[in-house]
Amino acid sequence: MKALFFLTLIYLMVASPRSALYAGDAWLAYGDIRGYIEPCGCDPKTDLGGVRRIAQIVQLERLNHKNLLVFDLGNVFVSSEKHNTENELKNKFLLSAIAGIRPSAILFNHLEDVNFAESDLLRKAANSLALPYVLSNPSEAIKKLNISKPYLALKEGLIFGYLEKTSVVSARTSHQDKQLFMEWNSIKEKFKDKPTFLLYSGSDKTLDYLLRNSAFSYVIRSNKNSFTHAAGKEERENEGLLKSRINSKDIYAVPLAGQGVLRGGVLRQQVALPLQQILAQVPLTPAKDKVPQETSIIPGLSGETVFSWLEPSFNEGAPLEELLKDYYKMQKSSFSKSQEERKAQLKDSPYLGAIVCQGCHEAAYKSWQKSKHHTALFTLQAKDKHEVLECVICHSLGADKKGGFVSLEKSPQFAHVQCESCHGPRKDHVKNPVKPKSKKTLLEFKPICETCHNPTHSPDFSFEVYWQRIKHGN
């Protein structure tokens, strides 16, 4: 064990222009969680990521690098425009989760701008937690929020943040540019012995412009995918999607939805062992009388390890576990409180349930009974997620609509994915059961399927392939 430790240390000192013990050389970055707390578990291929797993890998790396810099690229909150109870609960949890991870700096990004401006509770929580938000080019509106700082001067490095508010460089006046660069250079001059970091959210064009006028030791960027893009497996299978060549440098973005972490400095010259092996070698909470050995990583003799992809693996007592349990308790409580109101809506429900469809469409009904749609809610019940609305929506009939699913006890007739989940409410059809003048073509159902079979939940979804599993006629 000692031999491995010293071989690792010697290699790292040779591999880096500065000593491996220089703290600025070791950093991790994650971000753009966008409300993604943990995988739903629908498909093993996307069963990775989430804030609990980020917290775990950060804690493990801190055992090896006590001065590890950890960067959060922001956009942590739900990107939906709906400010409902569920999203409010999720945003509060996410803020507490980020505080639990203890990042060195957090970029004040687009979703922070929107959510802090609209929610007094979130803004007050961020201030009480003293989270290290940084933004070097704040607008007047962001300045009034009084949450972020123009830069952070830590022992391990000097950190700036940049959020592009327009996509056209020319929209920014030369006076503003010169003023910003003068401020940056003046601050850098005060801390010339420190490595400099730029946390960036914006276009390639603007980033190229910035780098031609101001130098940084490291540039880390926010994920470039739109807020409507569903996180899937594509970035893990093709890391090149996260790389940009700007101003003759390779610059990487953090993976979408916290599915992986970006490694930097010394950590990039190390090959990361699978998380399962790390946990086997380094206890998550080491005994007080034991010094953790540097065995969570081994020297990489070829290439670089740019990303660690956070696949399933947890010890009991993993970071944020209790916080996550409390969050789901609140979700269940919210679900329970809404049941009486939703139960009252059942009397005017536009839905009937599959059992009614059986009378005229027996062949289709029997086909449905043989499919996984027929038991969709039971899969949630097995994971104790049958009272979490964001999960229930895709495993029941109309849970997010008036007159739809309420609970297994109060509306069992609407449990699981049913005929009306795809064909729409059919109460009026039963009252007047005539064939419509124009029927939907098969492919017109594809967008309906993709609301649940999206890249996050169903990464290999193919309408043609999946249709064969539920194929039915009238």
Number of domains: 2
| Count of helical stretches | 20
Q: Give the structural class.
A: alpha/beta
Based on the coordinates given, report the CATH architecture of the largest domain. Answer: 4-Layer Sandwich
Largest pleated sheet: 6 strands, mixed
What is the β-strand count?
A: 14
What is the 3D form?
A: elongated
Strand order of the largest sheet: 4-3-2-1-11-14
Give the helix level as a range of percent: 25-40%
**Strand percentage, roughly?**
5-15%
Average pLDDT score: 83
CATH superfamily of the largest domain: Metallo-dependent phosphatases
Subunit arrangement of the protein: single chain
Terminal CA distance reads 68 Å
**Poorly predicted spans:** 1-24, 284-302
Question: What's the CATH first level of the largest domain?
Answer: Alpha Beta
What CATH calls the topology of the largest domain is Purple Acid Phosphatase, chain A, domain 2
What is the rounded Rg? 25 Å
Protein architecture, described:
The chain is of the alpha/beta class and 474 residues long. The protein folds into 2 domains: 2-322, Purple Acid Phosphatase, chain A, domain 2, CATH 3.60.21.10; 344-470, Flavocytochrome C3, Chain A, domain 2 (Orthogonal Bundle). It is 37% helix and 12% strand. The protein has 20 helices and 14 strands. The chain has a 6-stranded mixed sheet, with no helix packed on it. A 6-stranded mixed sheet has the order 5-6-7-8-10-9, with helices on one face. The chain has a two-stranded antiparallel sheet with strand order 12-13. α2 runs parallel beside α3 (85-101), α3 packs parallel to α5 and α3 packs antiparallel against α11 (321-337). The model is unreliable at 1-24 and 284-302 (pLDDT under 50).
